[in-house]
Design a protein that fits this description.
single chain, about 110 residues, alpha+beta, three-stranded antiparallel beta sheet, 2 helices, elongated
Length: about 110
């Protein structure tokens, strides 16, 4: 069974990596311009940054694809009672079925 916390792992990794890269580039631009307040970017620096981000994005997408292949496939959504994922099982749904808002449960 897929851990319940796995669904938040990948977006968090991507957000942290993007924030770190942006902060590093802003620091580099500020240091290069000698300006402590607002970084200035040349067209050449922006194009270089774009190419670097595109390469990082491609690498991250390949990594996510590899990770998603390693994860177990959803077998069913198990709806549980009492708004508790560990509550008594009420019904099972196929993974492609819509889940009602407010339903508690987990993917198996």
């Amino acid at each position: 069974m897929l851990p319940r916390s796995a669904c938040i792992f990948l977006p968090v990794v991507l957000a942290v990596a993007t924030a770190a890269a942006t902060a590093a580039d802003a620091t580099d631009a500020t240091a290069a311009s000698g300006n402590d307040e607002q970084p200035e970017y040349s067209r050449q620096a922006l194009m270089l940054r774009l190419r670097r981000l595109e390469a990082e994005n491609a690498a991250l997408l390949a990594e996510v694809e590899g990770l998603s292949r390693a994860l177990p496939v959803c077998q069913a959504f198990v709806q549980t009672g009492g708004c508790d994922p560990d509550g008594p099982e009420e019904l099972r749904r196929k993974c492609d079925e819509a889940i009602d808002a407010g339903a508690s449960g987990y993917c198996e």
